[in-house]
Structure formats: structure tokens, C-alpha cells
Amino acid sequence: MEQISPEQVEASPSSFIGHIDDWIEYLSLLIDRMDVDDFAGKVKYQRQLRWVLGFREGTNSSLTHNNVIASLYENIPLDTTRLIDKTKSYTPIQDCYKKSAKGHAFKQIEKAMCCESLFLLQGPPGTGKTTAIVEVVLQTLMENPDARILISSETHVAVDNALDRLSRELPDDSLSMMMRYQKFSESTELENPLVKNTEASALHDEVWQEAINRTPEFTGKLWERLAKVENREGISRWLARNLADKHQIIGVTCNQIEHLIDGNTITFDLAIIDECSKATLPEWVMAMSVSQKCVLVGDHKQLPPTFCAEESEVLSDLDAHQEKLIRDGVIDRIFTHATEDIKGTLLTQFRMQPNIGHFISEEFYNGELLHHQEQTTDPDLNFGWLTYTTQKLFPQPHLPAVKRVLNNKIEVDIIREKLEELASEHALSQKTSLLDVAVITPYKAQKLAVKRMVRQLKLTNLIIEVDTIDAFQGKEASVVFFSFVRNNGSAQFYGDARRLNVALSRGKSHVYLVGNRQYLQGQKIQSLRSLVKLNILSTVNR
Amino acid sequence: MSTYPSPSTSIAFHWDNDIGNAECIAIMYAIDSGYNSREALIYALPQFSHNRLENALTTLLATHLVTLQIKQLILSPDAMLLDEITNSPALLLPVEGNEVKPHFLLDVLKRLGVSNPGVALGVIKTKSNVVESK
């Protein structure tokens, strides 16, 4: 009998299976090194490992996904004729697409609908990713009213926004087909308050109440008995899985999908994974694995996944190539290799004033973005520098590395003064609505310093959110301050084109660059050099 | 004169994983309470999805914990007793660990009132531990 040599069963390092094996190695190392007491962390990585192994073994819903991704990863020509049904045609459902049914955005939706396996949708900042997700869901329901749809993302806020927006497009009585597991995030501002009724906890109460109303004595007995099946705070897994089966549209983060899935789960017809470029491979694999068709929505020109200190430490033990692949994710590579019929890019940005959008387009999207808005703010004043000159250094280079705190008091003061100015201007304008402002920065220490300052300011007519760039991806504000902090050392961290792209594309009408322009002038990073050419709105000497 | 401690083994009974889930237990309790048709089960158990109830019912029929007679679901007379046994604390019996064999377990179940211990052993698992005497 012919024997299989080890070489024959080992995956080539450059193949997709090879990359999955990198992940298996990394997750195994991570689990191995975790603190015995960190039970929750261990469970999370064990779960990811299980799903990655399952995907490698082909136990997921559609093996076509495995083949398509493997081909795209290795850039092997893919015959997409059997993946696309070109006979289908669609009519827009949402008003925004009805205005131009032949427009570029709706064509991307049509392509996604015609694709029967895996579709990649790139959505640069403010181009209406959520609107596109909602349209794909509505079209899928129109085509198959019984379709089961999973809306997932690595962040709660992305899932919340998609469900919230979808709920506004569905009639109120259709909300009963939706479930948000486990619940909407406290920080998400919901536009449709009724959508809260789709939270799993509300549905939990609803079904038990219904049972009590129907069969009070029996339900009481059953409640007591089932409490012994699972001793868990919140919703028991058995009920979560039953609720998931009873609902057509499920919104859940990638990492919580497993709570809803077991061998008896009815597979999904469609999984939409939002912010897929920010998700790690196990995260998007978990969502993809439970569905026949998958639409990956994201933007590989924005930030890749983030890794905590513990994860980074384990990553650094892998070889450099493995580490880079895991850190950067593979969405970029898959998207680049995909043929036009299984991918699409949304090109009209609706968020930013045209002059801000133009900069983003030229620097990060080869000038391909179009701008929906008219220029309503003065382009000489809405996007530029609040800069300073100083002899002080941030961080102080003479201190040992561990003591170098990345905050900059001068920039905090500049932001404070400008916030006060904005608050009085807004008061004078007699607008009743609050002005939403965001202060974003690459560094946590500066975030904390700005937060302290904002707390003391007490400006009642502004809503001010302070965060790091990485945490602010997916959000927006009318006015954005970007505090650079550093005026010496390496600017490589925030000079990363993907991070700069996110930082500069959050502001709808104004983006203020708060930093030492002189220092940035000396940097070799292309995007920073382009930024330096923007207008100087004010200069102070401190 | 020295005394030898008598041997002692604890035996705990658990439902097999296919039966010990919420769906199977809920169906057994529902039939026991008189909800003994497909429609009645769906009515009494709105917490459960139809497909999961159907799967669980198939399991219960296959293991003879439930039988079907002229569209009526009949619960095995042992089902609720087995549920009580699986929820009770472990039994402490004066036997050596190696004496805990199928025929011994059949005898224990019979003494506990199970009318068909053979079927019972197919749906429950046992865990025995030798208890060290002080």
C-alpha cells in the first residue's frame, strides 16, 4: 500500500491552509501561556481555536467559501461562473438607491445579490456601508421571505447600528423577526427605540411570560427543573439557541456566535460581516462558517485588527512572516486578488465636506472617491493646523523608555481653547441641537489627559467624545480634533496610512490637526508630508 | 483486636447528554403534565423552537422514554423517576469499586423502583467513586 509521506500532508506555508496553521499555532501558544485564573480569556481563545480547526477540516456550512478564499489567498485563477447568477435583476428598496437605480452604489448591491457564495464589499469612510448592508438584507428577504440572516461584526456598535438602521426600514410588526444577542451596547445611540424589544433578554421574558399565561402550573414546575440544567447568569444557552432558531435576523458579535450554535441549529442563508478588516481571521471565520452565503463588508485601507499586550507577546514568538500576516489580516490580500464580479467598492462618500473628502481620496484611495455633499464650510478654515512652536519635547527623550509618557499638555491647552471658542460660537448661532465633537489621538495617555480637561470644562452645548484613533473607527462627529502628541522621535505609529486614514476621515464638517507642524515637516512618511501642506489656522508659542 | 473498615462506593446517576438537555426534559415534563400531543407540546413550550422540539422528541422516541400510541404521546413510567434519580445526591453503597458492574447497577435501579432498568441504563450514565474511610 502506498504510504503518505509527511511532506504530502503538511500544508505549504504560502497556502491558505498554511496561514490557518499559523493561527492554530498562535492560538495554541496563547492558550498555553494564559494565566490559569483567566478563565474567560482562555475560553475565548479555545473557542476561536475550535472554529479555526473546524474551518480547516471543512465542517463549516459551505465548502465553497473555503475554496474561494484559498484560491484568492494564493491568487489562483477562480472560475466564478458557477458562483454568480447573472440572470437575476433587482429593483432598489431604500429611497436613497431609488434616486439612482443605475448608480454605482446600487450596482454593487446587485453584484452582491447575484453572487451566491462569497462577496467582498469595500466601504471607504462615510460611503454608506450600513445602508448597503440594510439593502442587501431587504433584497434577500424580498427574494426569500423565509431567509435566515446573520448580521455580525467584531464590535457591538457595528452590529447595533446595522440592526437599528434595518429596524427603521422594516414595518414595526416585522421587528418580531429580529433578535439582538445579547443586548445593545449602552454606548450606542439607537434611533429606533423599539429595536430594544429585540434584545435577547426581552425575548427571554416574553417567551416565559407567554408560557406562564398559557400553562401557569406546568411552567412553574418546568422553570424550577430547567434552572438545574444550566447554572448561568443571564440567558441560558439552551434558551439563546432556541430563540436564535425562532428568529430570522440575528445580530451578534463574531465571538458570541457560538452561544447560539450547536448541531441542531438551522444554518443561515446569509451572513453579513461588518468591519471585517478589523476582525481577526477566527472572528470572521466563525460568522462565515454558519452560513451558505457570506458578504464581507469592510475597508482594508483602514485599521487592521488590534492585539492586546499579551497577544502581541505571543505573536512576537512566531517568525516575522507569520506575525505580519496575522497582524495585518488577509482581507487586503483576498480583496486585491478577487475578480470584479465577486467584489465591489462603494465610491461616493456622504460624510465629509468635499475638501476633507478630497484629501482622503487622493491620499488613500487613488483619487477614486466621489463626494455627495456641497461645500458649505469655508475650505480655508475647516481643515487645517492648530499648531505651536515650543522648546519642550513630548515625550521627554532623556527619560527611560518606561517613563516616557505620551501626552502633550500644550496640545491639551490648544484643544481646550478651541472647544471654548466653539461652544460660544454655537451658543451665538442659537442652534437648539448640541454640537458633536470628537477628540482623537493615537495615545492612551493623551486621551486620559484630554478627558480630564473636558470634564473640568463643563460645556453644556457640546457633546464631546474623547478616544484613541483605533477605538474611534466606525464612528463620526461634526468636528474632529486630531492630537498628534509627539514632537520628537518616530512618527511611524500614527504615520501608518491606515491609522491616518481613520483619524482624518471621522469629521463631517471640520477637522483640526493639533500638532507640531515643524516636527512633522521633517518626517519622510508621504501622508504626513501631504498633511503638512494644509492651511495653518493658528500658531501659538508655548 | 483491630477492626477493618467496610468498603464504600458512591454512585451518581446522570442523564446521557442526548437526554439531559432542556428540550428533552421539557418534553418529558410536558407529557407528564398532560400535554401529550405534538400540538399540545408546541402550545405548552413556547420557549422552544419547533425544530429543536422535533429533534428532542425523536430522541425520546428512539430511547423508548416516550412512545406514540394513536397520535398520543405516552411517557415511560420510569422517565420521571429516572429524572428524580439523576437529580438526587450520589448513593453511598457498601461495595468495592470493582463490584459496580452492569448487573449490579441493574439491581440498584430495580431496587430504586425502575420498572425497566435495561432501558434505563441506555439513557443514563453512572459515575462511581471509592470513598476512603477514615
Structure description:
The complex is a heterodimer of chains A (542) and B (134). Chain A is an alpha/beta fold and 542 residues long. Helix content of chain A is 44%, strand content 15%. In chain A, the strands form three sheets. Chain A has a seven-stranded parallel sheet, sandwiched between helices. In chain A, strands 12-11-13-14-10-15 form a six-stranded parallel sheet. In chain A, helix 2 crosses helix 13, helix 6 crosses helix 7 and helix 16 runs antiparallel to helix 21. The longest helix of chain A has 20 residues. Chain A is globular and about 75 Å long. The mean pLDDT of chain A is 93. Chain B is of the alpha+beta class and 134 residues long. Helix content of chain B is 42%, strand content 19%. Chain B contains six helices and five strands, in the order E-H-H-H-E-E-H-E-H-H-E. Chain B has a three-stranded antiparallel sheet with strand order 4-1-5. Classes of the chains: A alpha/beta (542), B alpha+beta (134). The interface between A and B is medium-sized, with 26 and 22 residues.
Features:
heterodimer, A: 542 residues, alpha/beta, six-stranded parallel β-sheet, 23 helices, 15 strands, 44% helix, B: 134 residues, alpha+beta, three-stranded antiparallel β-sheet, two-stranded antiparallel ribbon, 6 helices, 42% helix, elongated
SSE series of chain B = EHHHEEHEHHE
Distance between the termini of chain A: 82 Å
Strand proportion of chain A, as a percent range, falls in: 15-25%
Report the span from N to C terminus of chain B.
Answer: 18 Å
Our count of helices of chain B gives 6
Sequence stretches where pLDDT stays below 50 over 5 or more residues of chain B: none
Helicity of chain B, as a percent range: 40-55%
Catalogue the unreliable spans of chain A.
Answer: none
The main β sheet of chain A shows up as:
7 strands, parallel
Class derived from helix and strand content of chain B = alpha+beta
The portion of residues assigned to helices of chain A is: 40-55%
Percent of residues in β-strands of chain B: 15-25%
Shape of chain B: elongated
Largest beta sheet of chain B, briefly? 3 strands, antiparallel
